[in-house]
Amino acid sequence: MDRYQKILLLILFVSSTFLISACERSAFSWPTTETGTIETITPVSHRELSRYLAINNYHWDNLDQGVPPFLVTALPKDLHRIKDITERKRLFFLSLLPSVLLANREITLQRRQLLIALRHHDAGLPLSAPQQMLISDLTQSYRLHHNPLTDPRSRKQLLQRLDTLPPDLVLAQAANESGYGTSRFSKLGNNLFGQWTYAAGTGLVPKERSAKQRHEVRRFDNLYDSVRSYMNNLNAHRAYRSLRAIRTKKRYRKQALQGIDLAAGLRLYSSRRDAYVAEIRSIIRNNRLSRLTTVSLRPAVAKGDALNTASL
Question: What is the average pLDDT across 72-100?
Fold first, then answer.
């Protein structure tokens, strides 16, 4: 490895370490480029949200121009008042797509830095303190039993788990589980995917919960945290090993990840099993979500040019 390559690796590692640590402090605090930042909005009404999308020239028919890198911290509480179902779906999908792409980018960057750390270790080079912290954090986050640096099975598991999810699958499940952002849990807890918790008093108690049950529906500070938690759930929980196996096979064959295919690994997400998988696939097809496979984020807006959303 020549001097230039070493310098490039160092730059990549330092920048990604800042990104990862910033994500732990706040989902919205890290810069996307040297001149741009992630903009966040909390629209109080669906009209305000619609105006924001229009100002940013962000529509279904121009996704080939890129997706603006902004984050909706919470959906407006009046989405259910939109009588036009097509319009309600449009706002829902466009609002969440940037979060999905940003979460996938975070995973991609973590994977890149993991591979660098693994190469350093295998070459007999000492890992830096940030690299050691990265390995420790990933080992815990992805529920590994042994150190992926020294245990081949754990390394293989981590590389299979630390991977992106197709946007069409994520959006279809969010739509299904949250009623396109109109459910009680999405409104009160920013929970888009129906994730549970057993920490008493920390979540929302389902109205249909029986006296013997103890689960609650998790609360999230913002929608991005809900997306990240959901992705980690699919990537780490043993119930979704088949989904990860499908993804690994697709990667090996150099095929694009499609929600229609990976949905087969969601049988255990619902007690409805195959009917649930069919429903997710139906949402993907009926809303033409598969076209999102190739979309990407636009460059971040320069700090001086950022919109003042408070005036919307």
Answer: 98
Q: Is residue 244 in some structural domain?
A: yes
User: Residue 308: what pLDDT?
Assistant: 42
Q: How confident is the model at residue 311 (pLDDT cuts 50, 70, 90)?
A: very low
Instruction: Let me know if residue 145 belongs to a domain.
Output: yes
- Work out whether the CA dihedral 240, 245, 246, 251 comes out positive or negative: positive
What is the chain's mean pLDDT, rounded? 89
* Residue 210 maps to a domain: yes
Overall domain count for the chain: 1
Tell me if 171 sits within 8 A of 192, measured CB to CB: no
CATH value at residue 48: 1.10.530.10
What crossing angle do the helices spanning 241-252 and 152-161 adopt, rounded to 10°?
90
This prediction has a pTM of: 0.86
Segment 201-207 shows an average pLDDT of 91
Contact present, 218 and 191 (Cβ < 8 Å):
yes
pLDDT of 13 over the 80 cut: no
- Asked if pLDDT for residue 196 goes beyond 90, the answer is no
Q: Tell whether 116 is covered by a domain.
A: yes
- Its domain, for residue 212, covers 38-311
The sign of the CA dihedral 93, 95, 99, 102 is positive
pLDDT-derived band at 302, boundaries 50, 70, 90: low
